[in-house]
Amino acid sequence: MLLRVLLFHSLLRYPSLRSKPVNKTSVSYCYCNNLSASTFMASSVVDCSTLVLCGKSLAEIEAAKAIKSSNTLKLPDNEELSIVLQSELDGENVMRRSFNVDSFMNSLCTDTFGRLLVWSPRLASTHDVVSHNFCELPIGSVCLADVQTKGRGRSKNVWESPLGCLLFSFTLQMEDGRIVPLVQYVVSLAITEAVKDICNKNGLPSVDVKIKWPNDLYLNGLKVGGILCTSTYKLKKFNVSAGIGLNVNNEKPTTCLNTKLRELSVEAYRFQREDVLATFFNKFETFYRLFIDQGFQSLEELYYKTWLHSGQRVIVQEKNDDNVVEHVVTIQGLTSSGYLLAVGDDSQLCELHPDGNSFDFFKGLVRRKLE
Ligand SMILES: *[C@@H]1O[C@H](CO)[C@@H](O)[C@H](O)[C@H]1NC(C)=O
Ligand SMILES: *[C@@H]1O[C@H](CO)[C@@H](O)[C@H](O)[C@H]1NC(C)=O
Ligand SMILES: *[C@@H]1O[C@H](CO)[C@@H](O)[C@H](O)[C@H]1NC(C)=O
């Protein structure tokens, strides 16, 4: 069993979702060249961010218009911003590789999530857009970028994301602070289940994306995506911004969903970001309702089938006076506060916390004994 931990650690030497720096000139060039709305062209050329607003139904389209005319959306550091409605873009000229809003909206069947979409060919960070404009956007709104230059990762790691990644962030609001730390697991599960769902619907062999606790997505032992949830609290409300990056169609820097399909000799189908995003929200809305009404227990079994850690043996280090003592413990699941539940060889249950210093959560785990 210990061998598994070692193997697991060796996987971590693979590169993360960081890729080569994007060639700025060529990226904005290829987009602005094919978008005819004059605001769009002008803004892309001078490298200011453009946000395109669109809605699923009349209600969200009206909300989008109101947001545009109130002109209250902002970016960090007062970066310049131009706002366009989808209806103002010349559809014929929108480049094929940019996000296909109609295809997404047609597959979306939610009441709340994903119905107001803010997309951009190129943004520093979708997470910043939703978290800085939490109050201006209806709850459940999503921001998507074709290319992201300063995507936020855990512990302020920045990653650069190439074309072909599904990159988005959305908002939700919660009241029960005890379960806020668990919502990231609901998000993770909704994305892995969305991929499975698409496979089932299209008669494909299963593409089994796994969760590496707490918030990475793995495929074939390689990192294929990640999740980031942040929240702020005021007046009994937690404003949560959830961000996801999933490499759908770009082999760089590690692997992607469509590479897996090729390996499985599937020729007739390729994952599309639009379909993955819509299916994600359809799943997420169902899971989120279960989570709020019945707690994380209702999703726990599925979560444990999807993560990589059941029965995993890990070493925790403990300082006793001046000696560092190592204990081997076996991961059992999650505790109610969202940390790892483990059992020692002496049957002592404990909760494992990251030490806050190590980039890899599984190095530098701190143990807290449970009764
Ligand atoms: C970026 O692309 C332009 C246009 O293709 C090219 O001239 C330039 O050398 C590239 N820069 C880098 C750093 O690759
Ligand atoms: C993009 O625009 C250029 C010139 O404006 C055109 O030649 C090219 O075919 C367009 N590409 C797409 C995918 O529309
Ligand atoms: C959370 O969002 C609400 C609007 O939905 C806003 O009134 C409140 O100030 C926000 N709280 C924080 C801490 O930003």
From TrEMBL:
Q: Where is the signal peptide?
A: 1-19
GO MF assignments: biotin--[biotin carboxyl-carrier protein] ligase activity
BPL/LPL catalytic domain spans which residues?
102-292
In terms of superkingdom, the source organism counts as Eukaryota
The record ties this protein, via Gene3D superfamilies, to:
Bira Bifunctional Protein, Domain 2
Looking at the Swiss-Prot or TrEMBL record, what is one Pfam family this protein matches?
BPL_C
> What is the organism field in this record?
Arachis duranensis
- Name assigned to this protein: Biotin--protein ligase 2 isoform X1
Listed A to Z, the keywords are: Ligase, Signal
The similarity annotation says:
Belongs to the biotin--protein ligase family.
Name a single GO cellular component. cytoplasm
